[in-house]
Structure formats: structure tokens, C-alpha cells
Records
---
Amino acid sequence: MRTGVFLRRAIALSLLLFGAALVLTPFFWMLSLSFKSQAEIFTPHLKLFPEALRWENYVAAFERSTLLRFLFNGFVVCAGILFFQVMFALPCAYALAQRNFRARSLIFGLVLAGLLVPFHVTAIPIFLGLAELRLLNTYSALIIPFVASVFGIFLFRQAIAAMPGELFEAARVDGLSETAIAWRIAFPLAMPAATAFAIFSVVAHWNDLFWPLIAITDSSLAPPPRGILYFRDEESGTDVGPLMAAAVVVVAPMIVGFLLAQRRFIQGLAVGGLKG
Amino acid sequence: MRLISRRSADALTDLWLAGPATLAMLVLIFIPVAIVAMLSFTDYQFGARSFNWIGFDNYLVLITDPQARRAITNTILYAAIVIPFSILFGLLVALGLHGLMQYAPRLSAILRAAYFLPVAATLVAMAVVWQMMLHPNLGLVNQMLGAAGIRGPAWLSDRGLVLYTLAVIGVWQTVGYNMVLFLAGLAAIPQHLYDAAEVDGADRGWERFWTVTWPMLGPTTLFVTVVTATGAFRVFETVATLTRGGPAFASDVLVYAIYREGFVYFKAGYSSAITMVFFAFVLLFTVVKFRFMEKRVHYR
């Protein structure tokens, strides 16, 4: 019996380790290539590890492309989107959760219906609208389409609806305005939901390729995924080392964030499944 | 005394709080959906001054033209591979890690992070890495196969193979997500059910799985299935990065076709029709998901 248990555990563990090795292979290979010299990369013999940790490829990646610019663009776009999403969503969610008004169920119905619509469906009309406003090829074009996050409204509403109504009554008696209640009482209490939403939003928009591919043609506005494709297509596949170094740099913020705050990250991305 | 009555002040507050978001929702979601539905019945091209109503012609092309139809059939085939494998591997890894947690919690947590890594990583960057790994001569995959005496194929330029290659990458990327959901489902199964099953004679791992674990994971499995299905139908990044729908439309999929027809060839009307077909598929899955979520809340 004991050997049976031991054997079963040993088999399960080796399968798990084997699977994890497979899953991690692309990450390992990316790192390995990013430290290899041109000669090492194009050798016909298989070499798993680089001869030495050379940083030349990283230097080249930053020098030869506007990698820093891509990272900056990603930061501006993600921060801009998240800021406006919360600005729009939180007051609306507070009203939906803690106030009584005629249009309330209609608006909440819109929120639920909005969850069914993937962004891709709205791309053509939004593109037309932005073209009409002459906003294509600007940061605005990358931010505006995402400011109305029904998913954000939904998450905040669920969080605020779970808070006791007396809390808000007391604040009203104290003479706080409704706007102040929403931002100074409901918002801090909804922080767990806000964190989950922020992670979901930042990861989704840092990684997005579809919309940047459509909305901008100016490479100096490209967020990281679009940028890395510019880089690849310019170098036409001959400079693998710097390309892999650029990939490491682009992937790193999300990976580091994930490793530092695993539980919150998993939570944030898991709730994303609720969205259509 | 008061300039405005209490009631209209309240109404103004509601408008101030909920109005901007509602307006933004209308302008950025609902009006665009109406417009895209309308455009799908026209021959509108980006930049054109006018358009004609052409009824269902765009849809007819999409269904009858063998090349155009590939976007639909490829997406379905891709999903048909990714959904079962991603769910099966997600479940197996979750079961393994759940068991491991009881005698090696640290290792279990490390492995969980490893399996989840592709979910958080930027898919486009990782797709570029896959491109290097799958290079016919210099790629890691074919070099390994070569070391074993096997001549590896051209993974991304072989018409018969390319969609399967993309599906493998799709599975690689989504297993960790499903694993996390299954782990949460497993953690929610109360121990006393296993004790009861043991009393009833179900004491072997297999029997425990079929009598307790699998039935109790039912709601999780349904949720995972729907999320994986919606994700698979949206496949875009890998296609845009690795194949651009090629070779010869062998890896064309719905979202990539929306992008190509609409924003490369500027056929806004036709692209709108593809959009509506894509929307219909996603809607189908999402409606299933919402119905099931309501039920689960109801039975709690």
C-alpha cells in the first residue's frame, strides 16, 4: 500500500514536472537566444544554453529600435484607459448600487447587454467615428474606444451593492455630497474589486494587438506588441538576438507583476472570464 | 428658498453620476453595434462617399465562396481542437497540483505559477518566440527532432499543418487559465464527501474521481468550457503575428478576416458581415454562460 502511494506520487510528480518544462520552454528559449551571439544562434548544432551572459543584444534592441518608446506608449495607453474607465465606471456603479432612480434597471440592463459585446464587433464604426473626428494616429485613438468599460461598472456595482446602505445614509446625514460619498467612501471600500479590475484592464491592453494594428500607422505611437512586430519586420528575421531581447523586455513587466502578486493577478485575470 | 426642488436635485445627481458612463456606453458600444449590423447589408468601402444596399449579398459571399468560408471553418476547427485539449490538460494539471499541495505545498505553488505564466505573458511577443522555435531548419523544435533522427516539417508554412500548429500554441496559452479555475473548483469540494464515498466503498483514486470530484466540478467545467470556447473563437494575435491567415487562407480565422477585409482591403460592408457572423458565435456561448450563472446563483 505504501509503495503504491509512493509510486503514484512519483508518477504524478514527474508528469507535472515534464508538463511544466514544456510550458516553460518558450520562455527559456527566449532568454537563451537573447544572450546568444549571432554565430551561436545560427550554428547547426543544438545548444541549449548561451556561452556567456552577453548583454549586447539588449543594448542593440534599445539602440536599434524605439523599444523604450514602445514601452512608454504602452504605459501611457494603459494608464489612460484605466484612469478614464474608473472615472466613468465608479460613479455610475455607485448610483446603480446605492441609489434609487427610474432609469436604474434600464442602465443596469445596458451594462449586462454590453458584457455580451466583444470589442472586435464595434471596431469598424469606432474606426469610422475616429476618422471623422481626425483622431486616428493619436494616443486618443488608442484610449477613447475603451473608456466605457461595462465590465468595470459591473464589478464595481457588485462590490458596492454588497456594502451596507446605512453606511451611505450616515455619510449623507453628515452632509457629504453624493459625489464625495462615491469617491471617498465607496471607492476605498471597493479596492479589492478595483485591484482585480485594474490588473485585468492593464494586462488586456498592454497585450492587445488588434486595435493598435487598426488605429495607428505611426510607429512612434505603437504599444509594445505592435512595436515588436515593427521591429521584427524591419530586421526581416536576420537579427534574432536583439529581437528576442526586445521580446524579453516587453514580456517582463507582466511576468514580474504576476510573480510579485500572484494571487491578485490570478484573481484579476480569472474574473475576466465573466466578460464576453 | 431652494432654486430647484428636492426631486429635480436628486434627478440631477443621478444624471451627474450615471449619465457620463451611460452616454459612453451608447456611443462606444450600442450605436456601433447597430451601425455594424446595418453596414453588413451594404457595399460600403472606407473612404467612399456613398454606398448601396445589397441585402444579404455579403453573407452569401461569406457562405458560398470557398475561400471566404475558410475563415468560418478554420475557426470552428481551431476551436474544436483547443477546447477539449485545453480543458483536459487544465483539469489534469489541476488534479495533479491539488494532490501535490497536500505533501509539497511550496512545489505545488511554484508549478502553478509556471503553468500560469503564458496567460500573463504578452502573446504577440511569445508568438515571435514560437516563430523562432518553429523555424524549419534553425528552430529548437526541428533541431530536437533532428537529434532524434526525425525530419521536422515546416510547421507554419505547410497548409495541412499550420492550423494545428496554431492550435497547439492556443492550448499552451490557455491551459494555465483553465487550471486555475479547476483548482478553485477542487478547493471548494468539501472533504466529507470523500469520506462518505470511502464509507460507501469508493476508496480507489479512480472511483473517488468519478463519484465525487467529476460531478462536483460540473459547474466549473461548464464555465471553463464556455470561457475557452469564446477565447478560441477570438483567436487573432498568433494568426496576425505568425501566418497572416496564410498560406493560401489555410489559417484564416474570423477575427483576422475582419481585420484584413476591413482594414487592409477597406471593404467595410463585407467586413461588417464577417463581424456579425463572429458576433453570433460569441453571443451563443455567452448566452449559455449567463443562463448557467443565473442557475448557479439560484441554487446556492
---
Amino acid sequence: MRDLLSYLFKRFIWMILTLLAVYTVSFVLMRAVPGNPFSGERNVPPAIERQLKARYNLDAPPIQQYFDYLGGIVTDFDLGWCMGLEDYSVNQVLAEGFPVSATLAIFALVFAIILGVTAGVISAVYRRSPADVALMAAAVLGIAIPNFVLASLAILLFVFTIQIFPAGGWGTLQQIALPAFCLGLPVAAYIARLSRAGMLETLSKDHVRTAFAKGLPKRTVILRHVLPGAMLPVVSYLGPAVARVLTGSLVLEKIFALPGLGSHFINAATQRDYTLAMGMVLTYTVLLFVMNTLVDISYAIIDPRVKLQ
Amino acid sequence: MPESLSQPDAAPSRHGEPLLQVNDLQVSFKTDDSRVRAVRGVSFDIYPGETVGLVGESGSGKSVTNLALMGLVPSPPGRVDGGSVMYDGKDLLKLSPLQMQSIRGRRIAMIFQDPMTALNPLMTVGQQLTEMTRLHLGLSRRQANEKAAEMLELVGISGASRRLRDYPHQFSGGMRQRVMIAMALSCEPDLLIADEPTTALDVTIQAQILDLLRELQERRGTSIILITHDLGVVAETCHRVLVMYAGKVVEKSDAGPLFASPQHPYTQGLLQSLPRFDQVQTTLRAIPGQPPDLGNLPEGCSFRSRCPLAIDRCAREEPPLASVGDRREAACWVAEENANG
């Protein structure tokens, strides 16, 4: 318990430092890109542009802007007003979009884990069988097909040909199913391959032979003695998987017209919406950090030899 | 043999029925281009309460023989091609997987060479000890825990009930092998197969483990097959010895006579290559040459090319195991000739 608390404390300090670095790099990068939030096809009259810049504190020297904005974030968690969306604060946008993206990500991940692990275990246990060959071929396809292609195919098939899912929108389970499927499938494919490799490696371990020598039924040996060890690489992958699902959802939310953070992320980047982009980047950083910490903790729970450092 | 080594007590009387009869056991492994015959017609009996040493170098088929007894030959690529293993009136090789499960661990138990890897690192020692007794003996969780603690005490692990909650990595190598032994004996099997149980341990721990095995055998009358390539271990613990070479038993004998007058030239070579403490030696003696390729065995005796005694007949016919004295057999034309005048 003490180990866990000191570990969490250390991770927290690291997260703060990482956030500071991410903030700095993003700040510099965004301002290094040509253009600004108000440059468009039509030139804004200089007087109005001056007023706009003054409203968003863009007329101050960059160093000043850097510290002013950082100060707001640190003291009030205030990410400022959106520069692209009228009358929306970044906090509001996040509060509305985040639950949608998070729900989608959770559905996709749970689906990916269940499908991927099942396929991997079956493949490994019935190694070289037709089932193994078929599943692994499917996994290679799943990894290779980009999710926007998958989404288009899925819409063609499940929305137009067999009309069982709506084409888009948000709120019902039916509306979540298709995007979660498209988002989760490539991850499931990767997890299937990881689980298969993990299972095969663990199956060849001496202690599994011991378990068989004890007279345990095959099912017990697989579930109790092989599966936990085989899941370690899958658990390690869950951190990157979250990142993958989050970035994947940027595209899918657009295709399925979901009110998540994805479209905001894209718009923020294309419109040089400095504040919104910063809000996104920082949110995702925190999310990844939390996920990686959870992964480390579950790793230590599964494998007692691992000490949290 | 080195006289200083302690001898096991005289062999238990071998009247009565053997516990286990292995007859003409054949096991092969498929490789990319051929089928390697790892065990080529091995036969032996195990009597209640005796310790039989199975000696041979790596690849001689000693471990595979015992995996076959347990029905644990990895398949594919391995396959039991023939023979029988009679136990309790049944041929173990013909039992269904389900029937075999009730033999494994319950009637025939096994301990392995490397205690560092033979225990599941992700489960507590208690979990690993209790799952067997709960399965085979139908004990409740509580009874199984009591039994597990009792077994740990028996193999000399102190504070047993507390240590049940520990993981294998919290035990030393010797302690883990004790845990393995406790686990193997917890269902009171008739036969314990110990596959090089001391090879991975240092010498003092080795002696402790062998003493433990011997003591437990005296107390419980368990038969033991001890697989090893260490002749010192054999001299210390075994009543009888089977020497294996290239997938066959080449010599069968009581332990005392084997060390006093080995009959098969391979056994002689093995004994000569032991370092002796009663003589000044500058170099270790070794048997010249390499063991044969089991996928491509030469005609005649497989030891011929390394044998100092080889005669013409050895190149043509493979010698069968034949009697070369009182309760002694060797698979060698020369030894047979000498024995029978």
C-alpha cells in the first residue's frame, strides 16, 4: 500500500512535468505555424483584427502570453475562450465532447479486448488448426485495413445493405455499436496476435508442464496457469491502445457524425484555434498518463515479481 | 566406485508384483526431414518402495521415457509409437485423457529439473499446493490449506502456514525444490518420477534434497525413478540402475554390482570419466566421439563407433539386453560372451 502511494505520488510529479513540457512545445509549435486564428479568405479590417487580438490576449508579447495562459490553467483550470467557436469556452467544449469520446473509446476497447483475447487464446490452443489460420489471417487484415476504410465498408454493409444500424448520430446503444466496432476491430486484431504469442510462449514454460503433471484438466491449466502470464503483453499494449483508440476516433467521429472531441481536434488544428488545440492536447496527455499508470498497476497486480517504482 | 559414498539400504525385497511394467516403449519425434526415434524399445519394471536410477547423457531418451509414462510427450511433434506401460492392471498408454488425469499427480507424480522455472511465478505456493489435493482428494479449501502446511513442514520448510501466502520468487532454489517435492507427494502417489531433481542446485543443497527424498521414501514407501546423469547421485540413492544410450537401455543392474564391475563398455566409460579423489589426475577422462544422430542411426550397435571393445559382430547386429550375471543385463556382444564363457 505504501509502495502504491509513493508510486502514485511520483507518477503525479512526472505528469505535471510532462504537462509543462507538452504545454511549452505545443505553444511554440502552434505559433510557429503560419497564420493565426483570424486569418481567412477574407481579410478582416485592421481595427477589428486589433480588437479580436486584444480580446484573446494575442497582442501581448509571446512570452507574456505563455505565462498568462499558463497562469490561468494552473490557478483556475481555465483554458480560455475558443478562438474558432463563438461564445464557447474550451472547458465547455471539453465537458460536452469528452463524455462522448470516452464512451466510444471504452466501448471500443472492451470490445477489442474481449474479441482479441478470445481469438488469440483459441488460435494458440488450437495451434496450426484451420481456426488458427483463419483467425490470424483475419487479424492481419484487421491490422492492415485503416479504420476509415473499415467504417465505409461497415456503413455500406450494415446501414444500407442490411439495415440494422443507423448511419450516425449519438445517444442510443445502436448508434454506438458501429463506430465502436470500427474503432475496436484493428485494436482487437493486434490484441489477438499479442495474446496468441503470449499464450504460445507461456504454454512452453516449465511450470505449465508441471501443471499438466499435476493432473489438472486442460481447461484449468489454460485458464489458471497460462492465461494470466499470457496477458502481460496485452496489458502492456493497453496504454498505446488507448492512444490509438483516441486518435482513431478523430476520424470515426467525423464519419459517423458523433458530437465527440474528434472534430474539434481537427478543426482546432486547421483553424489555428490556439486555446482549443491546447486544451485537447493537455486533456489527451493527462488521459494517456492515467492509462499508463493503470497499466503499470495492473501489471504489478498480475505479476507479483514486478515492483512499482 | 568411490568407497566413501554412503550406500542406500539394501534393496527392498522384490518379491511380489511390480508396481509398474514398461514394455518395449517406443517414442519418436518428427523433425523437418525425418523422424527421430528418441526411445527405441525400453523395458523395465519398478517394484514398490525401490529407487531406480535412470542414467544417461543428454539425448539418451531418459526424460522422454518418463514423459511417456505420464502421458506428457509433447504432441506434435512427439508420438508414442508402441509398447505398453502396465500399472494397476491397465495400460497407461491406452487410457483416455480423462483417465490419465486421475493418474497424473494422484498415483504417479513428477518433479522437474529446474525448480526456478517449474513453479508458476504468478501464483502463491499455497495455491499451487492446494489445487492438487482439492482436485484429486476432494479436500475443502481449509483442509487443503492444512494439508499444504503439513506437507511444507514435512519437507523442512519452517513457518509453513505463513509461507503458503508467498510466491515462488520469495523462495531460494533449494526451497523451491522442496516445495515441488511437497507438491508431488501431497496426494501420496505410488511412484515419484524425479527428473534431475538436483542438477540445478549447488552441492550442499543437492545432498539435502537427496536425503529428503530418501527419508520420505522410507517413511511412505513411495517408489522413485531418479533420472540423472550424475553417477554420484545414483551411488548415493539408488537400489537399481538402468543405463540408457541412444534411446535404449544398455545395462540393468543393482547399484552395488554396477559400480563394482560395470559390464557394458558405455557404463565403464561413464565410470572412468568420473573424477577420482583418491588418485592424482591431471586431465579428466572422457568417452571419445559423439552420441549418434538418432534420426540416422548406424546399423548394428549404436555405441560401436565409440567403443574400445567393438568386434565385427557389433557392426552387423544390434545386441539385445541379455543376462550377464545375477540379476544383471547388458546389451553388448562382448559382455555377453564374457559372461557366458
